[in-house]
Amino acid sequence: xxxxxxxxxxxxxxxxxxLPAQAVPVHDVLDSSDPAAPAPLPPSSGGxxxxxxxxxxxxxxxxGTGAAAIWAYRGDIPLGVTVLGAELGGLGRTEAxxxxxxxxxxDASLSAPLKVTxxxxxxxxxxxxxxxxxxxxxxxxxxxxxxxxxxxxxxxxPVVAVxxxxxxAALRKSLGKIGDPMTQPAVxxxxxxxxxxxxxxxxxxxxxxxxxxxxxxxxxxTAVTVPLVEVHxxxxxxxxxxxxxxxxxxxxxxxxxxxxxxxxxxxxxxxxAKSLVLTADKTGKIEPRLDAKKLRAAVAKPLAKLETKPxxxxxxxxxxxxxxxxxxxxxAVDLAGMGPEILNVLRSTSERSIAATVxxxxxxVDAAALGKLGVTxxxxxxxxxxxxxxxxxxxxxxxxxxxxxxxxxxLPGETFSLNKHxxxxxxxxxxxxxxxxxxxxxxxxxxxxxxxxxxxxxNATYYxxxxxxxxxPHSYYFDRYPAVIESTIFYPDLDFRFKxxxxxGVLLDTAWTSNSITVSVWSTKVWDKVSTEYSKRRNITSPQxxxxxxxxxxxATGGLPGFTQDAYRLxxxxxxxxxxxxxxxxxxxxxNYICASPETPETPxx
Length: 606
Description:
Layout: H1 45-72, E1 81-83, E2 86-87, H2 93-106, E3 114-118, E4 121-125, E5 133-134, H3 136-143, E6 154-155, E7 160-161, H4 164-175, E8 186-190, E9 193-197, E10 202-204, H5 207-217, E11 223-225, E12 229-231, H6 237-251, E13 256-260, E14 263-267, H7 269-275, E15 276-277, E16 289-290, H8 292-298, H9 300-304, E17 314-316, E18 323-325, E19 330-333, H10 335-346, E20 353-355, E21 358-361, H11 367-371, E22 377-385, H12 393-405, E23 409-410, E24 415-417, H13 418-422, E25 433-438, E26 441-446, H14 450-463, E27 467-470, E28 497-499, E29 506-512, E30 516-523, E31 529-534, E32 538-541, E33 545-549, E34 562-573, E35 576-587, E36 592-596
Parallel strand pairs: 1-6, 3-11, 13-20, 33-36
Antiparallel strand pairs: 1-2, 3-4, 5-7, 8-9, 10-12, 13-14, 15-16, 17-18, 19-21, 22-30, 23-29, 24-28, 25-26, 27-28, 29-30, 31-34, 32-34, 34-35
Helix pairs in contact: 2-3, 4-5, 7-8, 12-14
């Protein structure tokens, strides 16, 4: 047995402080209960002081150590922790988050553009555009972990978030073509013969990897380099060949029959080839599908026999004021809904018939919608006169244009184009040859005279107060038109367009007699009155006389003076002019064209 002073503590024991005592040899130690044992000597006063000091020291050290531990672990964030220079140690989560957000707001470098280098090309990306931010909540969670630092600081890296898709899109927009594109797999048709397009790998940036690099580098660094990686289509060459065998070839092996109560539709292999889609998505995956729009276009005429077109609600002006005529529903073969079933049938080379799925086809415009447009009164009307009666080609062209525009409805915010509405005015539409201005002189041309209808329509919309978008007056002035506020037209280069800038619908009504054409605008009045004020004519020029070879293409004229003039459109409300719009045009002097015989020398005269 060793003496108490020689005892060595083990690693499992708690260190013990031994106070000094009077040394007694081990072999002299007697049991104090033994009557023979001598009484112990009283300790000296100096010894008592040393014992007391040692005990107090141990107590102070113990209390101090505990207090330090409590102080170091106060709050949710350990003492000494910093994030981007913000001291968060000892703070609760809410306080720490507020302090970190304040620090982020003070740090202007966090909004500085990030330079991303890809193959020696640089893109500049704004953090706000790609969702590149410090995730405050995640950063506070990271900061709360670990031990405190009593005599220093411990920097915790911020947790960074970025939108990988937005970052990828921003880089592609800035850099344009990146790497080498992979050859996408596909099955294409040469006529009705399917042909396999085998895939091959390319090089590209990987959005997930790009985002990872940015998160790891920012905000410590505002410049990163993103490598290119090899990308492979998810569909292999063998799978493309299998699609040719199992899908494409059977699909065009014969016609497809679609049956319905109204008859049978035969879809030929050529129409199937046009509508069967066997191309890959951006990952290179091929999902066979049927393009219903292409199939409908390929079999439009025979398909129409199985369907009933819906009839839109419309306005009628019978009785002198607009009334609404109800529309009607139709029926349609739902090729889009039938797509998956058609694909299954096309995989077979024997049973190639399918029953049509017929759905209701609602009109594009119903009566309720028309009733909300405010087409209730005649807002303006304008008439121009013509000569020759309805038997002349020019008059017939005017009437034909009027027939095509009759009942046209222009919704609020829409722009009406006369060229777009009528299409090219040709013989097939009923237009005839009549004089047009071409190369500065009157020449026979198909649709001549439509400019008079255009001028009439322009003035009707002009006095309705609608926005003028495009018009061009004639090169020469004709007194059948109002000066300046008139318009020519020539497909497709010269058009007349106006915008319905009112909150109400605009209905165009046309009417004609043997010597006049009238256009009226029905809607709800926005202006009390629209009128015109003219300036005096100025810069007046006289016509010259020009002799042309006689023949069918020569049209003689008497000549007209040229001049410049202004027209002011005045918009009135409550008896006051609240808006003025200026129109100015310079008319050339129309030459006095003389049609001479071929033998007569063609000598222009001043």
